[in-house]
Amino acid sequence: MTAKGSREIHDDDKVGDIERTADSVTDDETPTYSSDSVTARSIDDGTRVASPEHNDATAATQNGVSAEAKEASAETHAPGQGGPPDADDTPEAGRTKLETTLIVLSLCAALFLAALDVTIITTAVPTIAEEFNSNIGYIWIGSAYLLANAAFVPTWGKISDIWGRKPVLLSAVGVFWIGSLICGLATSMGMLIAARAIQGIGGGGIIVLVNICISDLFSMRQRGVYFGVMGMVWAVASAVGPVMGGVFTSQVTWRWCFYINLPISGVGIVILFFVLKLHNPRTPMMEGLKAIDWIGTVTIIGGTIMFLFGLEFGGVTYPWTSPTVICLIVFGLVTIGIFVINEWKYARYPVIPMHLFRNRSNLAAFSTSFCHAFAFISGSYWLPLYFQGVQGVSSLLSGVYLLPYVLSLSLMSAAAGIIIRKTGNYLYLIIGGMFVATLGFGLFNNLPLEPDFAKIVLYQIVAGLGIGPNFQSPLIAVQTSVEPRDIAAATSTFGFIRQMATSISVVIGGVVFNNEMQKQYPRLRDQLGPELADMLSGSSAASSVGVVAGLQGEEGQIARGAYLSSLRTMYIVYVAFAGLGLIMSLFIRQKQLSKKHTEHRTGLKTLRSRTGR
Predict the structure, then answer these.
(1) Is the domain defined by 97-293+348-514+578-593 classed in CATH 3.30.300.20?
(2) How far apart are alpha carbons 100 and 439 in whole angstroms?
(3) How many CA atoms lie within 13 A of 372 on its CB side?
(4) pLDDT of 177-224, one tens digit each?
(5) Cα–Cα distances in Å, from 207 out to 10, 111, 202, 424?
(6) Where are stretches of biased composition, namely Polar residues (predicted)?
(7) Could you tell me if 424 and 221 are in contact, meaning their C-beta atoms sit under 8 angstroms apart?
(8) CB 303 within 8 A of CB 157
């Protein structure tokens, strides 16, 4: 093709040609560099590097590429020999500082609300269940949100590749807004649970698309700061949720747990609509629908929901040995297996490309993230039970007691992002963070029976300092090891793994705690009587903290001791997972991060050019 002809090509077609050329440089399915990372790599596959004396146009012609395409390809991939990153931080995507600030604040607000709705309802559930005269609310008001949230995360990432980040993000926020409105207006428990599922679908999209948008907006070196801020936002929202829910329920109405989302998310939609500048492919609706991997979408959503349903039902609604629980878990896993086979062998545009797991560093980063999320949620979810059941404080005050954990991990999350931007090193933060987290959760096994604020505060700070760096660092490790075409898929896979870890962690923690309380039933029956022992055993224990708070003298000490013993055993499991995360982090590879930002293009033309189909 002549230079003149090349210039007449439509932008999207030219980008496709450039990216196909760049992709053809190596046949390695798990390359060691990406658009924003620079890593040393020996060239021993027969590819000859042109000498400086060669004419660029001649060299490009020999490879079947125009000089213009070669230059753009080099800008996209830019492999090097581990030299220093770009010296200057040039403005990215032509944004002003005000525009960047507004975008980041809007993304923070959206993520805050999506995270807040995981926990804000916990202190309002008893009031809601009483108003609707329905016991199923104790389980399903929270579970409906979490199940839908986790199940739809991978799908949101893939459709953003087809229709673009901005319209899909706005759609996710819109779905969340509609779900929140219906929740606030709910007239029955069934209506509320259905609305919570709608909320969860939108919330899952918000969670993954915030990270994908940050990846598209900022260079690899810069995005660590913003990932750190988002980790801090998530932690704060998770901690203040129960407090806010308690305040709304006691001072106004529980419906404000949902109404609070409407003005904040509404303003966020308006700001993002006018300020967020990302490539919009304007893909026609029917063409986009044809490009969706429907088999993969249905199997990952269906398999995830069945598996998590089984975990939610087990030991609470039905015994773990019941056919209902066994069938849900088994068929859920089988369906997820069908999803894996489809993505591996048949999908044209897979929801989760299986080659992401062929890279050892990626696999280690995903595993570390799973263990990190598994351990992190135990602090936010189970420490309040310790404060209420053992220390005897109210549900609102337990949120205040949790502040050392939340503040330490929030500050460390933000600090880790700054360190990554300054040094370009994320590996030491990952390994060091998991080491300190393992130590911190080990200290939880020494939490005191009587008030000892020095231990309570210190142990939480140690655990928080270890948890903080690993909200974003493993994601950066993954993104440096994948091609630009896989950034969204890798990010949504990362988010999906974290959501699954969170859901599984809560269930496993509950199983361990309930089993330990059940083991103590004979002793509690002898010392407290059968009536109290029944209330404090098995699945009834976690919901009986109010009963424990009302016990005085020796009876109260016996009951609190039983809670503490069970919680200590439970935290042995979390120490084991934190330790496993530490071991897996040793297999993650460090790569040098570039300050250079390149725009990522979405749409069907880009997908087709990259897959060759």
Answers:
(1) no
(2) 38
(3) 36
(4) 999 999 999 998 889 999 999 999 999 999 999 989 998 888 888 888
(5) 34, 6, 9, 25
(6) 31-40
(7) yes
(8) no
